[in-house]
Amino acid sequence: MKGKTLLLWLCLVALVAMVGGTTASAQHSATFKAAMVSDTGNINDKSFNHLSKLGLDKAKRVLHAQTHIFISQSAADYLPNFTAAARQGYQAIVATGFLLSTDMDTAAGQFPKAKFAIVDFPWSALPHKPKNAIGLTFESQQSGYLVGYLAGLMAKKQGGKQVVSAVGGKKIPSVDNWIAGYFAGAKKADPGVQTLVDYSDQFSVAFAAKCKELALNQIAQGSQMIFQVAGGCGLGALDAAKASHTGKRPVWGIGVDADQSYLGAHILTSGTKKVDVATYRFYKSVHDHTFKGGKNYDGTLKNGLQGVGKISPKVPKAFVTKMNKIKALIIKGKITPPSKLP
C-alpha cells in the first residue's frame, strides 16, 4: 500500500513539473519583444534617438518587454539591423529617423509579421507602402514657429542689427519644417529681422565642432538667436552661443526635440517633440494587438506631441503671454506655419 502511495505521489510531482515546464515555456514564447534601430547619430544625441530610447525604456518598464537597441555606425548598417531584429523575433521595431526610410521599407516587405514604425517620415512616402508599418510624423513647423516668435521678440528687444539663424543637420523635410516655422515666427514678431541658415550634413555628436564653426560664422554675421536642428552635432552650435552669451546683446541658443535648457543659462528655450510618447504608443499598440498600419501618427500642438521647453527667466513675461496667444491661434487653425523654406 505504501508502495502504491509513493508511486502515485511521484506521478503527481512529475505531472506538476511537466505542467509547470509547459507554462514556463508558454510564458517565454509569449514574451513581447520591442526594438529600435538607431541612425548614425546614435542614442547619446540628446535628441530624437535619445527620445526614442526613452520610449523603448518605458516599454520595458511598463509592458515588461524584452528590448534591444540595434546601433547603426553607418548607413550600411540600417538594413542588416532591421533584418537582425526581425529574425530575432522582435515584434515591434522603431526606425529612428528620415534616413532609415528605404531600408525600413525593404525590411517591412521581407518580414510581414513584424510591425515597424519610423520617426519623422510619412507612411505614404514609403516606396512600397507596407501595411505592417506606420509613420511617426510631427508638424514641427508649429513648435518652430513659437520658438521663432519668441526669438524675434528678443532680437527686437536687444536692438541693433537683428538676425536669427539656424544650423541644420541635413537639408531634409524633417529638418526644414522646424526651420521654416522658426523663420516665419521670427518675422511675425519682427518683420525686419534677417535670417541665416547653414547645414552641417551631419547629426552625430562626433561632428559637434563642425556645427559650432557654422554657428560662430553666423554670430560673426550678427546672429543673436541660434536654433540648432542637427541632433548631437547641434550641441556644438549651442556651445557657440554659450561662448558669446555676454554683454547687452547676448547670443541665445535654442534647443530642439528635447528640452535642452539643462545646458545652461544661454538657452532661450527649445522646440520640443515627444518622440518618446509616440514610440511608446506604437509599442503599446503592438503589445495590445490594437496596431493598425498603413497610416501616420501625427504629432501636433493640439494633441500635445509638439511644444516648447523651459523658457529662460530673462524673457519678459509679456513675451511668453504673446507666444501663448500665437499657440492658441495655431491650434485653432487661424495660423498655419509653413513647413517648407522659400
Give a short summary of the structure:
The chain has helices spanning about 1-30, 50-60, 80-85, 100-110, 140-160, 175-190, 210-220, 235-245, 275-285, 315-330, and strands at about 35, 65-70, 90-95, 115-120, 135-140, 165-170, 195-200, 225-230, 250-255, 265-275, 295-300, 305-310. It has about 350 residues and is α/β, with parallel strands linked by helices. Helix 4 (about 100-110) links the parallel strand 3 (about 90-95) and strand 4 (about 115-120).
Order of helices and strands: HEHEHEHEEHEHEHEHEEHEEH
Name the CATH superfamily assignment of the largest domain: Response regulator
Shape verdict: elongated
Strand order of the largest sheet: 2-1-3-4-5-11
Number of helices: 10
Task: Please write the CATH class name of the largest domain.
Answer: Alpha Beta
* Strand percentage: 15-25%
Give the fraction of residues assigned to helices: 40-55%
What's the number of extended β-strand segments? 12
Structural class: alpha/beta
Indicate the low-confidence ranges by residue numbers.
6-29
Q: How can the largest sheet be summarized?
A: 6 strands, parallel
Task: Determine the mean pLDDT.
Answer: 91
CATH topology of the largest domain: Rossmann fold
Number of domains: 2
Identify the CATH architecture of the largest domain. Answer: 3-Layer(aba) Sandwich
The radius of gyration is 24 Å
